[in-house]
Amino acid sequence: MPAPPPAPVAAPVAVVEPAPIATERKSWFDKLKTGLRKTGTGIQAVFVNAQIDDALYEELESALLMADTGVKATEYLLDDLKVRVKRQMATDAAQVKLLLADAVTDLLKPLEKPLVIGEYTPTVIMVAGVNGAGKTTSIGKLTKHLATEGASVLLAAADTFRAAAREQLLVWADRNTVEIVSNEGGDPSAVSFDAVNAGKARGKDVVLVDTAGRLPTQLHLMDELKKIKRVVTKADATAPHEVLLVIDGNTGQNALAQVRAFDETLGLTGLIVTKLDGTAKGGVICAIARERPVPVYFIGVGEKLEDLETFNAREFAQALLG
After folding, report:
1. Is-above-0.85 flag for pTM?
2. What is its EC number (predicted)?
3. Pairing of strands 153-158, 206-211
4. Rounded Cα–Cα distance for residues 69 and 71 (Å)
5. Comparing C-alpha atoms, which of 152, 137, 160 is closest to residue 272?
6. What is the DSSP secondary structure assignment for residue 229, as one 8-state letter?
7. How far apart are CA 64 and CA 246, in angstroms?
8. For the residues of 109-124, what is the DSSP string, one character each?
9. Residue positions in the annotated binding site?
10. Residues within the annotated binding site for GTP?
11. CA diameter of the chain
């Protein structure tokens, strides 16, 4: 009679190293990691030669707040991390750092959402943002991204409020070799209306409407944004299909305030977060995830056309925590 098989021995719970980044995204990940260095350095420093004790969590709290993660997201992440540390029976700071990356990934995961093109022809995308956030530049980069994916794009220069905005968009249109509808000094709503009709007539896949730079406190200008949206709907009853806000990562908690204000005015469907390579405040994406979870379609870490990429929660968390 064969001997009974030995009873299974419970394996110790191990902290699993994150999966490697896919090869085609590796160069982007390296760029993102470099870009987030200012934000991540203070957080990563907490784990150097640290013990798992109250002091570690207090220092981590300070580091997260300094990165503009915000009070609510910081409290949420710390509570989540403590549960993970206990459950995994982590014994050293390096494991805790990996678990924090998991916690950040799970917090940011709901913000991951692809920009869908093709459900409507054309897909009308309204783009808003305060002056200086990198709105028009981001439209140029987004045009490049869409063209690379095979989509035909028509630009609408509806930022007639800011001097030189039209000229700036014309440069981006020329670089991307795409058509543009503009009217110097014209009414932004009229330009938007004409562009949507032109997009339909010319069979374009996407119409990108560059709206004027706004401060949420400028109520008359915010009202004009509402008007543009109404007029776009008159040109196409299903449009706009996307309403994006470009925010500057440097502005930290102010960026969160902008997301709230523009979402209340326009009903945002997505965000583009720019200039993450020049800021120590990149943790604001965590604050957005906790307090106003509007999807982040793209993030930017540089000035080149290709320096705008789709947002991936795991990549962001890994790049942030080194």
Report:
1. yes
2. 3.6.5.4
3. parallel
4. 7
5. 137
6. H
7. 23
8. GGG--PPP-SSSSSEE
9. 129-136, 210-214, 274-277
10. 129-136, 210-214, 274-277
11. 95
